[in-house]
Amino acid sequence: MFENTHFPKAEKFWYLGEIMEWKEPTIHVMSHALHYGTSVFEGIRAYNTKKGPVIFRLQEHMDRFMHSASVLHMDVPYSKEEITDIILLVMKENKLEKAYIRPLLFYSYGNLGLVPKHSKVELIVAAWEWGAYLGEAAKRGTRVNIVPWRRIHHSQFDQKAKLGGLYVLSTLTGVLARNKGYDEAVYLNLEGNIAEGPGENIFIIKDGVLKTNDMSESILEGITRTTVLKLASDIGLECRVSPITKQDFFQADEAFFTGTAAEIASIVHVTDDSDPADEGKEYTIGTGKVGNITKKIQNFYLEVVRGQHDAYADWLTHVYKK
């Protein structure tokens, strides 16, 4: 029996063509993905609006979900449209007005060789009510630690894909940063530039210019990242996409994380522990408080995802269609 203590309002999930009770999962312990991380997933958010709950940029998430599956050579037994319908069904079955949604495709029970040639691809869709990933730290500004381990290089795999097994590095560094008293970790890439957080892209602001990096800097091209670039441009901010050096990061006027789970979270303090041989140096970003431009982008983003700007209505999928 599994309690939903850390999954508020989660009562049911979808698996093997059925809506199942949250407390009684039925996945075999020898499932391939459990041992080797052979899964792909998405993190998607739904928000409450005056017209009822909406799912933000669901089509883009579905496109990436299916691309990730193709990278792992999965024969997916469902179409994007079918998975979309399942997501809507799970929202309704749990009576959720706002939610974090997790679709997961994985190689299940069959064989335990590294190549899952006898393991079927199965789908799970779950949803629950989950606040901002970084919690209270996102409101006051996060304190981050640049960890000594480098981000997996963009030449090693298709970084447009969200592959389950690769996130073990995110778990390791996330735990490391928190054990040292920080809110989150930050990676450098093999070139020594700023890459991203364990589950977030990074933006900086200098002299009124918004800047982020791209996939050549060993990042996942996040959907929230592309959203922020569009919104910032629409409100008249100059935006640049180019490498971010450590000095760019340390000398920024403002900095923030973006991600579906984290949404937009300011970064106000950095400790550089990227070289284990050196004592970590500390830096304050800007004034050490959440910056005005960050607040402006953050507020605009939250208005958009909650359906307050008709210009972005195409990004919203209504759970209860008229």
Task: Explain what you see.
By secondary structure, the chain is an alpha+beta fold. It folds into 2 domains: 12-128, Aminotransferase class 4, branched-chain amino acid transferase, N-terminal domain (D-amino Acid Aminotransferase, Chain A, domain 1); 136-305, D-amino Acid Aminotransferase, subunit A, domain 2 (D-amino Acid Aminotransferase, Chain A, domain 2), CATH 3.20.10. Helix content is 25%, strand content 26%. It has 8 helices and 16 strands. It has helices at residues 32-36, 58-71, 80-93, 136-140, 168-179, 223-234, 246-250, 292-305, and strands at residues 12-15, 18-21, 39-41, 44-49, 52-56, 99-107, 121-128, 142-146, 184-186, 201-206, 209-212, 238-241, 254-259, 263-272, 281-284, 316-318. The strands form 2 sheets. Strands 1, 2, 3, 4, 5, 6, 7 and 16 form an 8-stranded antiparallel beta sheet that branches. Strands 8, 9, 10, 11, 12, 13, 14 and 15 form an 8-stranded mixed beta sheet that branches. The longest helix has 14 residues, at 58-71. It is globular. The model has no long low-confidence stretch (mean pLDDT 96).
Short description:
Strands 1, 2, 3, 4, 5, 6, 7 and 16 form an 8-stranded antiparallel sheet that branches. Strands 8, 9, 10, 11, 12, 13, 14 and 15 form an 8-stranded mixed sheet that branches. Helices cover 25% and strands 26% of the residues. It starts with 11 loop residues before the first strand and ends with a strand.
Topology (SSEs and partners):
Layout: E1 12-15, E2 18-21, H1 32-36, E3 39-41, E4 44-49, E5 52-56, H2 58-71, H3 80-93, E6 99-107, E7 121-128, H4 136-140, E8 142-146, H5 168-179, E9 184-186, E10 201-206, E11 209-212, H6 223-234, E12 238-241, H7 246-250, E13 254-259, E14 263-272, E15 281-284, H8 292-305, E16 316-318
Parallel strand pairs: 8-9, 8-14, 11-12
Antiparallel strand pairs: 1-2, 1-7, 3-6, 4-5, 4-6, 5-16, 6-7, 10-11, 10-13, 13-14, 14-15
